[in-house]
Write a structure and sequence with these properties.
By secondary structure, the chain is mainly α. It has one domain: Hydantoin permease (Orthogonal Bundle). The chain contains 18 helices and no strands. It has helices at residues 15-26, 29-41, 45-73, 77-84, 92-125, 133-144, 147-166, 170-196, 202-209, 218-231, 238-243, 252-280, 291-301, 306-339, 344-363, 379-407, 409-416, 427-449. Helix 5 packs across helix 7 (147-166), helix 9 crosses helix 12 (252-280) and helix 13 runs antiparallel to helix 14 (306-339). The longest helix has 34 residues, at 92-125. The chain is globular and about 60 Å long. Residues 1-7 have low confidence and may be disordered. The chain binds phenylalanine. Phenylalanine binds next to helix 1, helix 2, helix 10 and helix 14.
Length: 453
């Protein structure tokens, strides 16, 4: 209600800035933590293949759709859908669902980020560096099973995000992220090189690249698709919100393609860094969320100056996680401030306080609340499952249906060609995919994966 046409909105000032910020949202713990652990848990190469297909057939079209709607709406996600939808149609509910998803994601994401921050300090202390699975496993367990540490680190992370947002330095952080990301790539390359030269590394490569389709099930396919949504920050309004800051001459399909490729590249690097080492040291590829935290210290334990490198690795991971968290928070913060007229600091504060409350259920899910499960899942797993495997795909379906059936081809053409100035040969096939292929695919995978069909 506060959003008037005269109000000047902050926006990205350069095309490169757009790419960097969007990449900052996509690349994060999803690449270095979630991608490896899900790939390990779900059978390796066959999972990877389904994930790649989902990224191409569903992820990319939904990302383009979202960015396009955002730039058209030039507002927070809820206002954008109110503006763009015909009167009387409640498409804005999709954005509201996205706000809900943002809360669920932040609740567990901030806890994983908490482990990363904690590992910086544990790394400096030197106690976690070992090639023995028993030692690195025990160090990780000691952290997640300690309610006080889990909670305090999470609140510290939330406070840090609050600080960054309140001081209005998030653009500054993006600039830093932009400069440091290449360093993370290089470090992943170094770890990969070491990991690949360990005795027994071959088996890790076979695991990662030679598919065993007997490992696939409807549930696994849904998990792979959910990962595609999570990775590309789509289906919950994040890319729509970022799209609203895009310049009018930004080439949206090209931007989306670049983000997707770079993101896949980082995930592959992480996979190559982790799996050969997992097999070489005799870890379990299906160790679950602990995988990154038990494997990485082992790789560094077998590198000269490993401790220094490991601290650097967790610092860079923390920075990558920060970029992603700022983008998740941007969804509810922009809705509260633009739609409901709260000042940005107040909107930020409300969101973070709520998150400290809701998120603590995830922080404590390995300790105090370890016995509490809903549908057999801890809060941590439940929030992860509902956001990635239900809410984001559902958001994706609805946004595709909105563009494919309500908005229509002409509007999409106008929006993606920047008013006719760009020549895009992919428009017709893209529209076909958005109208039929993506929504149908998501729907089938969801219904099958959830056992509803
Ligand atoms: N894509 C981010 C990552 O992989 C996570 C994220 C999800 C960010 C949803 C924004 C929205 O770490």
């Amino acid at each position: 209600m506060s959003m008037t046409s005269t109000q000047v909105r902050d926006g990205f000032t350069s095309k490169f800035g757009v790419l960097a910020a969007t990449l900052g949202s996509a690349v994060g713990l999803g690449n270095i933590w979630k991608f490896p652990y899900l790939t390990g848990e779900n059978g390796g190469a066959s999972f990877l293949l389904v994930y790649l297909i989902a990224t191409l057939l569903v992820g990319l079209p939904v990302m383009i759709t979202e960015m396009m709607l955002g730039r058209r709406g030039k507002a927070d996600a809820v206002s954008t859908l109110i503006k763009l939808a015909p009167k009387g149609q409640a498409w804005w509910l999709v954005a509201l669902m996205g706000v809900g998803a943002a809360f669920l994601i932040m609740s567990f994401y901030s806890e994983v980020a908490a482990w990363v921050f904690a590992y910086i300090f544990k790394g400096i202390g030197g106690t976690i560096l070992s090639t023995d699975p028993a030692v690195t496993g025990a160090a990780f367990n000691a952290l997640i099973k300690d309610p006080l540490q889990s909670l305090l680190w999470q609140w510290l992370v939330l406070a840090l995000m609050g600080g960054i947002l309140l001081m209005g330095v998030s653009r500054g952080i993006e600039a830093v992220t932009k400069k440091l990301m290449p360093l993370l790539f290089i470090l992943l390359l170094v770890i990969g090189a070491r990991s690949l030269t360990l005795p027994g590394a071959r088996e890790g490569l076979i695991f990662l690249f030679s598919p065993d389709f007997s490992k696939l099930s409807a549930g696994v396919v849904l998990t792979a698709m959910g990962l595609a949504f999570f990775k590309l920050s789509i289906g919950m309004g994040c890319m729509m919100t970022y799209g609203s800051y895009f310049r009018d001459d930004q080439h949206i399909p090209a931007t989306a393609c670049r983000v997707m490729c770079a993101d896949l590249f980082v995930s592959m690097l992480a996979g190559i860094a982790i799996f050969p080492a997992v097999f070489a040291f005799g870890f379990e590829p299906s160790a679950g969320p602990a995988l990154l935290f038990i494997t990485i210290p082992a790789v560094f334990a077998s590198i000269p100056f490993g401790q220094v490198f490991m601290v650097l690795f967790f610092v860079l991971s923390a920075i990558a996680a920060t970029g992603a968290m700022l983008s998740i928070l941007e969804v509810p913060v922009s809705v509260l401030s633009e739609r409901f007229g709260l000042s940005r600091p107040r909107a930020t504060l409300i969101n973070l306080l709520l998150l400290a409350l809701i998120g603590s259920s995830c922080a404590l899910s390995n300790s105090t609340l370890a016995g509490v499960t809903v549908a057999g899942k801890s809060f941590f797993d439940l929030f992860d499952f509902i956001s990635s495997n239900v809410l984001m795909p559902l958001g994706g379906i609805l946004l595709c249906l909105f563009v494919g059936w309500v908005w229509g081809f002409e509007r999409m053409k106008e929006a993606l060609t920047n008013g006719g100035t760009l020549h895009l040969r992919i428009l017709k096939p893209l529209f076909f995919v958005v109208r039929y292929v993506s929504p149908l695919l998501i729907l089938i995978v969801m219904l099958k994966g959830l056992g509803l069909f």
